[in-house]
Amino acid sequence: MATSSYSRVSTSVRSRAWSTRAKWTMLGGVVWAFMQPYRLTFLHPHGQGFWWLLSEPPLYVVLVGLAFAVFLAPALIQDLEEAEDAAEG
Amino acid sequence: MLPKAEFVHWWFATGFLILGLLLLAESLVGEAAWRRRPWRVYLWPSFLFLMGLLMWPVMTFYTNSTIHMLAHGSWAQAMMLAGAAELGLARGKLHSPYWSLTTAGAFLVSAAAILLHEQNGWFYARAAFLHHILGWTFVIGAAFPLARAFRPSSAVVRTGFALVFVVTAVFLYSDRDSASIFGHMSPLAGAQHR
Question: How many Å lie between the alpha carbon of A2 and the closest alpha carbon of chain B?
Fold first, then answer.
């Protein structure tokens, strides 16, 4: 009983930690963009070449976080919950 | 026209960030939950292999010097070898956890290449500083894949392994072709960027 309760709390914490990981990554990119706006060339695109317009590092970080949130997190959280149910069942 | 070296560093930084986050996720949720969907097991090893493949165009086009070409070529081979070994372990074709030693070897080869091809001192410019610190990060970070071969299920080892990639991403994102480091920059390093 105690083990099951511990497992449920642990899984819940891991699910929450995982789901916020992607959000923290996105937030990291946004904070970076505010701290170093000159790293975002699209904010001052006049006269910039193709490579400068493609290279937007803070935006890359936001996109990585977004990709994790959309493509990886939902299935992983579902699997964690199923693993918890299986352990209880 | 070729993209500047700093752009390539930022793209690879993104690759290392993805690798680090995948490994952190695996470490956080545990191997059992991570392996519940077979495609997930292949994610980071195949991504590492892909990054090795993408190093070949870097080797081909960025030929500032022979030593740069050799360094880029050795990274390409080391990353492909480590990715292939990890793919073999993920697929179950390779059984011995000691195959993880190839990743430790890849870390050490990469560290040697990055330290040897940087000819300037630590405070010459930011790029030189980052080369030195990246090299030593991989020398010290090699302890994690080494430990992973002997204690593959250790959460500390897995998390440390993941964080080496995240730290590498931060260093690579900090790179500029010519910028100062802690207020130091050699007059020989060129005009400073923003």
Answer: 20
Neighboring chain A residues of B32 at a CB cutoff of 8 Å:
83
| ipTM higher than threshold 0.85 | yes
Angle between helices B101-116 and B143-150 (to 10 degrees): 170
Tokens of B33: 């939950």
In a domain, B164, yes or no: yes
Per-residue pLDDT tens over the stretch B96-118: 989 999 999 999 999 999 998 88
Could you tell me the two tokens for B8?
Answer: 């390539």
Cβ-nearest to B194 among A38, A55, A68: A38
Say what the pTM is: 0.90
Closest-CA residue of chain A to B3: A51
* CATH number of the domain residue B88 falls in: 1.25.40
Give me the residue label for tokens 């994790």: A68
Question: What's the angle, vertex CA B185, arms to CA A38 and CA B115, rounded to 5?
Answer: 100
